[in-house]
Amino acid sequence: MRLKHGWSQQELADLSGLNVRTIQRIERGQQASLESFKALGAAFDVDFSELQEQAVRDIAKTPEQIEVALAFSHVRDVKRFFYSVTIYLLVIGALAVFNLTYNPRHLFVLYPAAIWGLVLVWKALRVFDIIRWFGPEWEKQAVERRLGRRL
């Protein structure tokens, strides 16, 4: 990412607040701390968890390492799902209070609650592997079929 931006190691160190030696160690493949990922994420203007996932995928060479990368991706999907549920509850709750306060005869809150709720149900079915369409396992099988071999 540093090279894509055309930055030197010193420029990245200045932007991230890290030491140049830390940048050099990370680029040589050594483990980076959580604080370093956060600092780099801020410098590149990306979520630091994306940097961690990309780092895992970049060094994944063995099937076990690939499984770790897939597990990391799944945990991120679960985290996003629960974040979406929290936002849903807050927004629909606020709409329900507003609806019942100003126009209790017509429950307009039911429309967004039902549509958004169905989207969340679909997301839950996919995230928790209740339906396997287009999930990580399906992707893996599709790649295996395409390459005509077992990964």
From TrEMBL:
Residues 1-51 form the HTH cro/C1-type domain. Gene3D superfamilies: lambda repressor-like DNA-binding domains. It holds the Pfam family 2TM. Keywords: Membrane, Transmembrane, Transmembrane helix. InterPro entries: 2TM_dom, Cro/C1-type_HTH, Lambda_DNA-bd_dom_sf. The chain crosses the membrane at residues 81-102, 108-125. The keyword Acetylation does not apply. Signal peptide: none annotated. The keyword Electron transport does not apply. This is 2TM domain-containing protein.
